Amino acid sequence: MTEEQHDIRLHVNGVRYSARVPARRLLSDCLRHELGLTGTHVGCEHGVCGACTVLVDGQPARSCLMLAVSAARHDITTVEGLAAPDGTPHPVQRAFSECHALQCGFCTPGFLTLVAAYVRDNPDPGEDDAREAVTGNLCRCTGYQNIVAAVLRTAEITREHGASGAPEARRPAGRAGAADGPHSAASPKEGGRP
């Protein structure tokens, strides 16, 4: 027996995509396999490790716990969508680089999306706040010291320079509409990837 397929339209990183997926396809798998956005990593597939964290309507969410069909009415931001449209790195990307807050890099996309949203909502965290903010994401390499330093550095850069126009620097104004710009009807086959 074949599994029922669903045609869905997703709004990811400011671009509209079309995909045909089984009802049980996870958002993480859809992003990676149907849309080719492989920056979202899949670790535990149980919502524990945080490697698959993306932003759903501006809030961190585990994409391995969300069905792709459930994401169709939401704005999704992956790690690929953090930089400004001109390619300027988001403050969190700068901070993780400056603070050497990664080693193998597998957990990094989840941390980047999580911290981008956290600093947007908490612009002046203390060290204990920063440590608490990242407790839900697992890293097996760094020992977290540099990740905590990167959270604080992200806040510092954001306060000094703003978020360089990156989507996560501000709360979404609302749900995506049909006229979101030149890529509103794009699919991966139509060159709609950012």
UniProtKB/TrEMBL annotation:
The keyword Oxidoreductase belongs to this UniProt entry's keyword annotation: yes
Signal sequence region: none
InterPro entries associated with the record: 2Fe-2S-bd, 2Fe-2S-bd_dom_sf, 2Fe-2S_ferredoxin-like_sf, 2Fe-2S_ferredoxin-type, 2Fe2S_fd_BS, Beta-grasp_dom_sf, Diverse_Oxidoreductases
Domain of life assignment: Bacteria
PROSITE patterns named in the record: 2FE2S_FER_1 (PS00197), 2FE2S_FER_2 (PS51085)
Domain annotation 2Fe-2S ferredoxin-type: ranges: 6-82
Keywords recorded for this protein, A-Z: 2Fe-2S, Iron, Iron-sulfur, Metal-binding, Oxidoreductase
Region (Disordered): 160-194
Protein name: (2Fe-2S)-binding protein
Species of provenance: Streptomonospora arabica
